[in-house]
Specification:
The structure holds 2 protein chains of 2 kinds.
Chain A (H helix, E strand, L loop, with lengths): L3 H5 L6 H25 L3 H17 L4 H5 L5 H5 L3 H6 L3 E9 L8 E6 L3 H11 L8 E11 L4 E11 L5
Antiparallel strand pairs in A: 1-2, 1-4, 3-4
Chain B lengths: L3 H41 L3 H18 L5 E5 L1 H9 L8 E4 L4 E4 L7 E4 L9 E4 L4 E5 L1
Antiparallel strand pairs in B: 1-6, 2-3, 3-4, 5-6
The chains are: A alpha+beta, B alpha+beta.
Chain lengths: 166, 139
């Protein structure tokens, strides 16, 4: 049996053909945009750089009582921008300093930035998955020796970034 | 008078021409469509807005990752050629904002792309060498 539509050529220039083109075009555009935005997502690297920076600055000439002082300012100590952390709320940083062996002296907890990101970090850590819509996090820790206490302390850092997830 | 046989031939030829025209239009449209898609994919990774974002993020990450008392130079020749192509004043390519602790890359008319650094940017720590087309950052 002859296909009348095919014989007349209408099969090529039918509205369905244009619809297929539109679907293909939209799929390619979405695919390319997703790929490129993934390449430009530097939040994980940024969080890692932040945690490294804080560990470096706190471990240098480490003295527990300096950090335990009430007027200790992590912004000036580590050269961090107060505007970006407090006003813009793009980052979160949590530092815990405690003795490796016991709870003496009292552990210190320093927290700055947008603390909503802490739950994002917990969700991703517990599920062992990375969710692009959530803030990206970095966990780092190191041991340092304090000569005044003659003991080792552990500095644990959680850093999160959610700047420009696009 | 045209004979019935000739008349049928003419009608058949007309149909064939019609089919050929539709096929050619279809092929031309196909070539056009795939060319447009090819150029879109090829240019997407080198477009102005992509380059603005890529450079702003790279520079911000470099500033954030720098250790104290170091100096780095970033080649920004590519940014100059983009600005030249888009007829933008070269002095507007890179703008540090010390109040917001951010940097802005502008390669075309518009606001450009702004990205914040978590490390405090101090006035005088960033400068541009327009002769060598380099960005110099000191900590």
């Amino acid at each position: 049996m002859k296909n009348k539509k095919a014989a007349s050529g209408d099969i090529y220039l039918s509205p369905w053909m244009f619809l297929v083109w539109i679907i293909v075009a939209v799929s390619i555009i979405i695919g390319v945009l997703i790929f490129l935005s993934g390449q430009l997502d530097v939040r994980k690297t940024e969080a890692s750089a932040l945690s490294t920076r804080v560990l470096d600055c706190l471990s240098e000439n480490f003295l527990y009582y300096d950090l335990a002082e009430s007027d200790f300012d992590i912004y000036s100590k580590c050269g961090l921008s107060k505007i970006v952390f407090e006003e813009k709320g793009m980052f979160y940083l949590q530092v815990r300093i405690s003795s490796v062996r016991d709870l003496e002296p009292t552990p210190i907890k320093i927290e700055i930035g947008n603390n909503q990101y802490l739950s994002d970090c917990k969700i991703q850590k517990e599920s062992f998955k990375t969710f692009r819509k959530l803030a990206q996090c970095s966990y780092k820790s190191m041991e340092v020796y304090d000569p005044t206490y003659s003991k080792n302390f552990r500095i644990s850092v959680i850093a999160a970034s959610d700047q420009d997830k696009k | 008078m045209i004979k019935e046989r000739n008349l049928r031939k003419i009608i058949l030829n007309k149909k064939a021409v019609n089919l050929l025209t539709k096929n050619i239009i279809f092929l031309v449209l196909n070539v056009l469509f795939f060319s447009v898609m090819f150029f879109f994919v090829a240019r997407a990774g080198t477009g102005t807005s992509y380059m603005e974002k890529a450079y702003a993020k790279q520079i911000a990450l470099s500033i954030d990752s720098m250790r104290p008392n170091t100096e780095i130079e970033i080649n920004i020749e590519e940014l100059y050629s983009f600005a030249e192509k888009n007829r933008l004043d070269e002095t507007n390519i890179f703008t540090p904002n010390f109040e917001n602790n951010s940097i802005t890359i502008r390669l075309a008319k518009g606001d450009g792309f702004t990205y914040h650094c978590f490390k405090e940017i101090l006035p005088g720590s960033i400068s541009i060498d327009p002769l060598n087309k380099k960005l110099i950052i000191k900590t």
